[in-house]
Amino acid sequence: MKYSVAEGMSFTRSYAAEMRLLDFPSHPRMNCSWEVPVPHLSPQTLTQAEQRTLLRATSGNRRDHLIYSLALGTGLRLTEIVGLNVGDLYTTGGKPKNRVRLRPEIAKNGRAGDVFLPDALLAKFRRFWRHNAARRDGLRPEDPLFCSQSRTRISPRRVQFAFRTWQVKAGFDRLYPFHCL
Asked: How far apart are CA 117 and CA 66, in angstroms?
């Protein structure tokens, strides 16, 4: 005896409905309509207490502290933060801008956009400028904003590794990916 594919799927679907083992999407040509409720899962995020703990732990490291503050305060992606240049955030006189224009080459899908910096971040950027000026780090508009120890643009992987290290130092009970910021 031959069975069609639709009959086989119908049998499988009814058997699965009885046994609650399989979940096939409904097909428009089949007269089988049952749905299994799927719980809505929220993305992992840091609690406010964890955010404060992380920022307190990184307060001695200006670069990492500012990277995490920028991610928390603006919602920028990791590659957007790493791709920022000094000229994107500072005027030629060293004053931080209130509005940051994301260049298409660092924005997701090449879409340029504007990000507004909170007042608390502006104060941190002023301190960061003074710190970089004292260290004689690159302050030209085309220089990378965040540099590694070799004074080149920091890599996204390095930021992810540092984020994990800071979480351990802060005593987190679980480790989050950078995307949670």
From this structure: 12
Judgement on whether residues 106 and 173 belong to the same structural domain of the protein:
yes
User: What tens digit of pLDDT does each residue of 48-94 get?
Assistant: 999 999 999 999 999 999 999 999 999 899 999 999 999 999 998 88
**Nearest CA to 90 among 32, 141, 31, 156?**
141
| Residue from 39, 40, 29, 33 nearest 14 by CA | 33
Whose CA is closest to 174, among 48, 46, 41?
46
What is the torsional sign of CA 117, 122, 124, 126? positive
Q: What's the domain range around 94?
A: 48-180
Max Cα–Cα distance, the chain, nearest Å = 85
Amino acid (one-letter) located at 73: G
Reported pTM: 0.74
Strands, E assignment, the chain: 99-102, 113-116
Angstrom distance (rounded) from CA 48 to CA 43: 15
Look at the chain and report how many structural domains it folds into.
2
SS3 category, 21:
coil
Cα–Cα distance measured from residue 91 to residue 8, given in angstroms and rounded to the nearest whole number: 68
User: Is there a single domain that holds both residue 36 and residue 56?
Assistant: no
